Amino acid sequence: MAPAVITETAIDDIKIHIKSGPTTAPEALAAVKARFVERNPTSLKLHEEAVRSLPGGNTRSLLHTAPFPIFMKSGHGHTVLSEDGHTYTDFVGELTAGLYGHTQPLIQETLVDAIQNIGMNLGATTKLESRHAALLCKRFNLDLIRFTNSGTEANLHALQVARKFTGKRKVVAFTGGYHGGCFSFPEDKPTENSVDLHEWIIAEYNDLADTKRKIEESGDVAAVIVEGMQGAGPAIVGTSAFLKQVQESARKVGAVFILDEVMTSRLAPGGLQELENLQPDLTSLGKYLGGGITFGAFGGRADIMSIYDPRDGMALAHSGTFNNNVLGMAAGYIGLSQIYTPEAAVSANAQGDAFRKALQDLTPGNKMAITGRGTIIGIHFLKDGKKELASYRERQDDHELKELFWFEMMEENIWLHKRGYIPLILGTPQEELDRFVECVKEFLARHESLVKL
Which PANTHER family does the entry mention (predicted)? Predict the structure, then answer.
């Protein structure tokens, strides 16, 4: 069913009530939702059309918002234009895949050249894939690498080869972890759409004792998979001690240590593993490393990855029509070699750290908390006022405040994911980062009675 439209009379009644004095969170939320409907009639119409052919009008769950999603028409640089005619500064950043923005000139030139002079997909090996592979191996300290179509696929195959290599089945993952559409662990068990439901051992993120116990005492552990910073947290950072414990315990029992860097590889020239001096057996990659084209990869130790060597008659099979697609190989290489160079990565993450610090300076005495690292930031509204989060389970979300914040930032033409996850886009002007900070400051002042502890 299409959502009910809030009438003009209802909107007027809400506005009159708000002007009469302080509001409760439900009243403020009802008012901003009414304004949202008023402001975005074309998106509502398009949503009503979409539900006729898509379940709920949606084919990517994370993009759903109530009462209906905003439909985007186009993007340019660090901005997006909605079908309702509003231009937003993009702080969604395609959940880290949009690092280069929407119209990066060199990426565009590369894609046009590839389409015109090479072709869309040749059904053959090309020099583009080995060129990109060599760059990725050098950048992220990998012996060998293989390509997939997404980070989800990268983790799927990394787990398969770990099981083949060890001859074991169980995998240790962590509460709050997300490793793709079929690998999600919000609590102490996988979600029902996860694969291999009975082969997971779930340890507590950032809990050294539980991590050591689950890895070393469970038996039959083929692999341990972990994010150095949990994207679904959003942006809950793993401590150095915790990540070293994961590595140490995995080595102790002969399990394959898989570091999921699908989102975090952008945090330093050599990824988060460089920052933390980690030596994972396998690393999974994705998102921006295809230059904006669908992409995934996994790689690491030669003795593990050689299991895929097709020259060996007993090799583990790994196919995929678009694994080595021309566009992703071409754009990914240009992006990493000429745009997100090591120097650019250092500069971008320093800017992200400063932006996060400016937001954190607004949080004393209120329910807002800011987490993250470098170019990836998480915004939280927590009932207990906690400023640091060790795990997903520590979150005591004030859902009404979080939703109110999202709707009001939309009115400021700031495009955010409702989760509060912000991966910065290269080239976003400092003025826009400063404007975001001011909008947050004004939100906290406007709703002081709701946000104060």
Answer: GLUTAMATE-1-SEMIALDEHYDE 2,1-AMINOMUTASE, GLUTAMATE-1-SEMIALDEHYDE 2,1-AMINOMUTASE 1, CHLOROPLASTIC-RELATED
pLDDT at 18: 43
* Look-up of token digits 């993952």: 173
**Residue 275: in which H helix or E strand, if any?**
helix 272-276
Is 15 marked active-site? no
Catalytic, out of 168, 287, 367, 402? 287
212 as an active site residue: the answer is no
33 is catalytic: no
Residue 391 backbone phi and psi in degrees, to 5: -155, 165
Q: What is the pLDDT of residue 190?
A: 77
- Separation CA 96–CA 330 (nearest Å): 19
Which whole-number Å values give the CA distances from 153 to 147, 180, 321, in the listed order?
9, 8, 13
- Close Cβ partners of 153 (under 8 Å, ≥ 6 residues apart): 180, 296, 320
pLDDT at 16: 43
Structure-token match 């009438």, residue found: 7
Closest to 289 in 3D by CA, of 142, 112, 151: 151
Rounded-to-integer distance, Cα 53 and Cα 125, Å: 37
Sequence-ordered alpha helix ranges (H) in 40-95 = 41-50
How many angstroms separate the CA atoms of 409 and 436, rounded? 9
- Residue-level pLDDT at 9: 53
First to last CA, the chain: 39
How far is Cα 254 from Cα 97, in angstroms, rounded to an integer? 33
Do the Cβ atoms of 247 and 279 come closer than 8 Å? Answer: yes
So what's the pLDDT on residue 22? 45
Report residues of the chain scoring pLDDT below 50.
1-6, 11, 14-22
Identified catalytic residue from 178, 205, 340, 392: 178
Distance of CA 430 to CAs 89, 416, 424, Å? 12, 17, 11
Provide the pLDDT for residue 114: 98
Tell me the C-alpha to C-alpha distance, in Å, between residue 214 and each of 81, 161, 164, 294, 391. 48, 21, 21, 35, 17
